[in-house]
Amino acid sequence: xxxxxxxxxxxxxxxxxxxxxxxxxxxxxxxxxxxxxxxxxxxxxxxxxxxxxxxxxxxxxxxxxxxxxxxxxxxxxxxxxxxxxxxxxxx
Length: 91
What we know:
Number of helices: 2
Order of helices and strands: EEEEHH
Distance between the termini: 58 Å
Number of domains: 1
Oligomer: single chain
Structural class: alpha+beta
């Protein structure tokens, strides 16, 4: 349904016939760590995340998994001794 509380005009899964069914009756504004994310949008009532109704919970245990401004660096794989690898492969 279309949101009628803080993100007016956007489609929201928490909207019901009798209002917002999310905890507290409305989505929460973004936290400071969300600044620069492509999913945050400006509304009349402030900046809100388009993907999560409570952005502070996404950052509670580390980086948000939906953040578009965070770049994850892959770890380099350790070098494997080719002789040992060939012995393991034969089993």
